[in-house]
Amino acid sequence: MLLLTWLCLFVFAAKELYTMASNLKPLELLQQLPIEDRAKLGRPLVSCYAGDTCKDALEKMRTTNLSCLPVFGSASEADNLVGLIDLSDIVNLVAKMHWNKLRNSTEHKKFSADWTQWGQYTVAQALTDRKRSPTTVADSATLADVAKVLVTTRVPRVLVRSGSGSIVGVITQTDVVNALHSNMAKLSADVANRQLSQFKHIQDKATRAVIAVDRDHLAIDAFRLMADEQISALPVIDFDGNRTPEGTLTHRDVRGVLDDADFPLGLYNQSALAFSLKMHGGHEAKLKPLSIALQLTSTLKDAVDTMHQYHIHQVWVMNEKNQVAHVVSLTDLLAEALNN
């Protein structure tokens, strides 16, 4: 009888512990997770030097499937961190270099010297002031520490410093959101099932239109718009039709055309839609924008699952007419999670 009583107490205690472990707030969950695994510490750090060409830096990002590189002064200044360069810097440089010239001329051949010049631009020339002092965290930090920094500074990634002060890794918004995805069962149901319509940034921007590009505009128009608005993706829409999305363009697409003989000239002779289909018409052919978009009734869990499954940094939120009404980014997800 006594043994049965102890057994019942043990089962009850185990259930209570499981319930407590499965009812965590996002911040509580992330505080339990060190950054070591997510930041892939211990692996060789992929970086570049300030004197490297942007073309070489972009090629390194492409071959390693990375979106950014820590920048050091030179090979002789391996500990002299001078910045962080990412795909947005490359896109902005290309857009600003050639915008005025090519938009005012139909003779693209006369600018062949400029395409050579593109290959000579250095990483130091592409670095923005904001990227010259990249945010860092200690390698002893938790994902909660990282998430707070990412949300408060509105940066997509931070560098990781060792105890000796050396840069040993990079941790991104994607790493933190993927950690939430892996531990979703431990999150409070109230948080996981929170509808997108309840997200603060969506309520704050209820009447603000999502920035988009017309399907017939040039691809360079889209990248210039991203540069001007400081965003990393655009829906491609038929402005004269029903305004439903027909494609998506992102900064990461630049990696896919680096080997083109006419890069970046090709950005000027393809429409935004044609370029989008070129970038996403292969293994993603079935992933039409509407098929992976969400609704206002979708939940935080739905958004985390979608971004994790399709390796995307933002997802479009549709209205009842299947038009893009909002966008939820990785930053938005983290901000909403921390606010709960």
Automatic annotation (TrEMBL):
UniProt keyword terms in alphabetical order: CBS domain, Repeat, Signal
SUPFAM superfamilies listed in its UniProt record: CBS-domain pair
Cross-referenced InterPro entries: AMPK_gamma/SDS23_families, CBS_dom, CBS_dom_sf
Cleavable signal peptide: 1-21
A Pfam family assignment: CBS
Domain named CBS: residues: 41-102, 130-187, 206-265, 287-340
Source superkingdom: Eukaryota
Name of the protein this chain belongs to: CBS domain-containing protein
Gene source species: Chrysotila carterae (Marine alga)
